[in-house]
Every structure is written in structure tokens, then in C-alpha cells.
Amino acid sequence: MDAAIQQRLDEFIARKGLRRTGQRELIARAVFSKDEHFTAEELYDRVKRTSPDVSRATVYRTLSLLVEADLLREIDLGENQTTYDPNFHDKPSHNHLVCIDCGQVVEFEDSHIDLLNDCVTRRLGFKPVRQTLVIEANCEQLRQKGRCPNLIASRLSGKRLRKKR
Ligand SMILES: [Zn+2]
Ligand SMILES: [Zn+2]
Fold this sequence. Notes:
The chain has seven helices and five strands. By secondary structure, the protein is of the alpha+beta class. The strands form two sheets. It has a three-stranded mixed beta sheet, with no helix packed on it.
């Protein structure tokens, strides 16, 4: 886990008057050890594999805490479930492109989008605090080959699938 993230988490925990606990540390490390997006259940499954005594409730509580500390962001990738994104600390205004076929998520940053959001927000008399854009799209494989190899991979790995439209 990044030293800057660790420091911010420690400060937040101290400010809230909470104790540092081994389980919370362990969950936080699992969250920030990868740059993958995940659901609470996916994280619980991942943590449980190495630490079977961690409870689901502790995982959910720690996720709320990390969100409150603004280290972790809840995002909506259009699947009727909350996805957690650990990458906003490093890339504060990154955006997501989601393949509507296989659910593959691609992150990108673009200064033009930032500028546009900034202009629109200010014109309406506000000041932007956080911004992120989700683009639903077809992946190149699907367009070129008529099927997406990721679709099979995501099925095999048991990853959730997006509905076709
Ligand atoms: Zn992201
Ligand atoms: Zn795809």
C-alpha cells in the first residue's frame, strides 16, 4: 500500500478517535494492493481466502470508512450494484469506458473532459468538487471479429456480465 494512502488512513482513523486494528489494516491493504475495481462481495471473497476469520461485516464497515476518508470511491458502472474504485487517490479525475458486451472496464484521463466539466459547472454557478464520466461502448474485438474474447473469459472467471442491449 502506498505510503501516502497509509498516512491519510492513519490520520483519518486518529481524527475519528478509532483504534488501529489488524483486520482493518489487512482489508485496507487488500483494497490498495491492486488497481482493480471490485464489489464488496468480491473483496470479501478475496480477503477470506487468506484470512478466514475476517467477517463480512468488518469488510463492509472498513469499506465505508475508506469511502468516508475519501481514499476509496463508490462508482456506478450501470450494473445495479456499487463498484469500489481504489484509483482516485492517484488519478483524481479519471473516467471509465465500459464494454457493454463483456463488461471490461478501461480507465482514462483526459484534460479536455476536465476542462469542459469545469466550464459547464462554473457557468451554472458551481465549483466542481469531483468528476467522473462513464462511457458505455463496444470493444474493438467485438466490432472487428463479431465476438469479444473477453466475454468468454469473464464468463469462465465467473465475473458478472452486463446485459446485452
Ligand atoms: Zn477507476
Ligand atoms: Zn468487450
